[in-house]
Amino acid sequence: MSSAVARLQTARSSSPKKILLPDLVSHCTFKLRINRHRKQVTTETKKWLFKDGNLMGKKRAAYHGLKCGLLTSMCYPDAGYGQLRVVNDFLTYLFHLDNLSDDMDNVGTLTTADEVLNSLYHPYTYRSSARVGKMTRDFYKRMLPTASPGTQQRFIETFDFFFQSVTQQASDRAAGVIPDLESYIELRRDTSGCKPCWALIEYANNLDIPDEVMEHETIRALGEATNDLVTWSNDIFSYNVEQSKGDTHNMIPVVMNQEGIDLQSAVDFVGNMCKQSIDRFIEERSRLPSWGPEIDRQVDIYVNGLADWIVGSLHWSFESERYFGKTGRQVKATRVVELLPLRV
């Protein structure tokens, strides 16, 4: 155990047994909408995930409590059935990968990355019996017919970044390393898996935005502000479960370690960063240039899709059982979280 981890465990043992969450829901004024295909897509994705007896017992129960179909429907409210189904399959699969990577060393993540990326780059020719490869090829082949070339490229590239970052995360976990805040933020923007989801906003809404527009500094800044809100708020919401497992790949212990502050002060610190990221998104959106009527129309849809992710992820976090069990709505109302004991 590293000295930093030891200090955090000591600090945690002397901390209060509850924390007060920041009020991020009230700070976010974007309209929450839900896709009309939610129930049908949720049913079909469950069949897809559970095919061949995959996920049994507690893992299957955890999937039902995840309510991924609700997240997808909140974040892609205007998608047609076919696109929403592909996106929901991907997000479900991404949560599955995230759970797997929590228990992997860097060799395990590299092996999984090899399966997934070969399946994406060669969906019609790569052959592997590994289930993760089969699932990858299955949803990606359904995405290809209507995804623009730029969307396909952005999806694969950012998913590659995801695997590179979770490999680094696995190395840090094995070494008991707690990174500084700047390094953590840089890594977290990729371990979140958000960037491929932004490419799916293009896919879900049948957009074909030129590469030079997607690479414009304002568009990139909007994606980054959204990523920061989604991931930093997720670190707050998931902290209780993660601290009970001794996991320190979370912004709250990073801030406690770097700033030398207590748990509640770190929660407040990260909460303020989340509020600033929403404010940053609004400010950047006001700076959008014009590229002509048709591209401006598509950019508006894309940017609204980012706003849907901000408001959707915040509300879904309290509906899902992933972070607060069955008490999510109570936590949403009171913002009080009772800390779980550290697992032996």
TrEMBL record:
Its cofactor is Mg(2+). One of its GO terms (biological process) is isoprenoid biosynthetic process. It is an enzyme of class 4 (lyase). One of its GO terms (molecular function) is metal ion binding. It holds the Pfam family Terpene_syn_C_2. Keywords: Lyase, Magnesium, Metal-binding. InterPro entries: Isoprenoid_synthase_dom_sf (IPR008949), Terpene_cyclase-like_2 (IPR034686). This is Terpene synthase. Its EC number is 4.2.3.-. The keyword Membrane does not apply. The keyword Transcription regulation does not apply. Signal peptide: none annotated. Belongs to the terpene synthase family.
